[in-house]
What does this fold into?
Amino acid sequence: MTTAHTNTMHTEVGSLEVTDSSARQIKATIRDVSKVYRGRTQVPALDNVDAHIYDGEFLTIVGPSGCGKSTLLRMINGLQRPSEGAVEISKSSTDRPLTSMVFQDYSVYPWMNVFDNVSLGLARSGLPKPEKHSRVRVWLDRLDLGKFESAYPSELSGGMLQRVAIARALVAEPEILLMDEPFAALDAQLRRRLQEELLEIVGDAGRTVVFVTHSLEEAILLGDRVLVMSARPGRIVDSVDIPFDRPRDPELRKSPEFRDLEERLWLMLKEHATATA
Amino acid sequence: MSRQNTVLAIATPVFFLVLWELAALLGLIDTRFFPAPSSIARTGVNLVQDGVLLESLAVTLRTLMVGLIVGNVIGTVVGVSMGLIRPLRASLDPLLSGLYTVPKLAILPLLLLMLGLGEMPRVIVVAIGSFFIAWISMIEATMGIAHGYLETAESLELTRSQRLRLVIFPAVLPEYFVGLRIAVGNAVLLIVGVEFVMGGSGIGSMIWNSWQIFATERMYAGIVCVGLLGYVLTKLVKMIARVAVPWSPKSTSRRR
Ligand SMILES: Nc1ncnc2c1ncn2[C@@H]1O[C@H](COP(=O)(O)OP(=O)(O)OP(=O)(O)O)[C@@H](O)[C@H]1O
Ligand SMILES: [Mg+2]
It folds into this structure.
């Protein structure tokens, strides 16, 4: 039994492992991971989750509330250890962090202005100050935060705050970007705008992203692949490839193919929505 | 609205002072106990002019500040450490919680017994009172830091010192200043109490002595002076807090 959260250098990206040119490089492996929270009662949160994250893919995860999606992300981020199994991430660079996480809330510190909050993403980078500053500025501008760099979070709207959180995660150029329902607290309109912005940011750089959401529409619009999870304790029900080309037009939502996919995922979720434990 | 508040805040006490003055003039109250405000003021001015009042004030202020700062610093360090380190909390919390309820003035005789009549026992009483207020407010504040803030710090892989400096200290800072304000009021209370008992040249003993020699005006002047001392110190803490906690929504909305 392996109980360690291991971030081993277990494959080198660009190594000779690829034999079939269409095969996708594996960036991370979630190997038979189970998680039991031990408190007054034992809560089994994840049950034998087995999955790959491919290099450069946008993976979305959907599942009923409480099925362990956040738990899974936390394990990839190294915030929690699996009770059983292991998470293995292949490291391809020494000066980029393996992962960084965008939380749903409480992640932007109210006592720091926007600039300092975003700079925190580079707190452990060891970069010289001028370099840090210019990288922070780049991401502030990309997320339309340039004018607000000295504003405190209490002066910003919810959408702005989430942009700050995203900028902070991206400024570190993580090998895997983890996002835990980052848009859940936003109203529909803002949500769409940020989805579009994210599509743009992700589209150009081949980033590896794991994105948890409650919205099937969001999962399909953003994802190359959707992992569907069962109710608690969470298992992987299926992995569904999303065939749409990038760059994606948000108008895609209205196409019949999109609607069909949504219907299919919804039926899958419904079938596994009742808790088994 | 806020100007109206200011007017009311000034007008109300002025009204009562005028009422008092009139009552004293007309002989409606016993001026042996309630001398007219004008005669209190006159005595006050005299006391200031011959330097007595300021000297007493300086003596009191020195003891108060030393005790307050020492107690506050130690209480803050202990409170934050206990909030962060579970074993420390487990071992010290029952003891300190038990001692917390002991009235601080009640240990003065013990301190006199141990340390004699010098400056030390006075400082220590103030320090102990200040310690407990800082301790209790900082342990609560530290344990009350939203879990998400700490998890974010962990996710960002901040070092221990970065976590303290960038997350924990600023997170508890607003409550630190609330505690400090309470501590200031409490310290004034304690030092006056100590000076009542121990005498000396502080403002508390001036008030106490005035009672004994029936110098009512002098007594009132001393009371007003102590009141002002507490007021000014509290105001000062508020001002520092406003500068030190610039992110608080209240101060930003005020700026707007
Ligand atoms: N620290 C914890 N201690 C005990 N139980 C926990 C803890 N964190 C989560 N759980 C439980 O584990 C289960 C999975 O939690 P998790 O937050 O991963 O679910 P989720 O899929 O992210 O839910 P949601 O969709 O509501 O965000 C839930 O039943 C939750 O109550
Ligand atoms: Mg969650």
About this structure: Confidence is low (pLDDT under 50) at residues 1-21 of chain A. Strands of chain A lie at 26-38, 42-54, 58-62, 84-89, 99-102, 176-180, 208-212, 225-229, 236-241. Chain A touches chain B at residues 77, 79, 97, 100-101, 103, 105-107, 109-113, 120-121, 123-124, 152-155, 168 (CB under 8 Å).
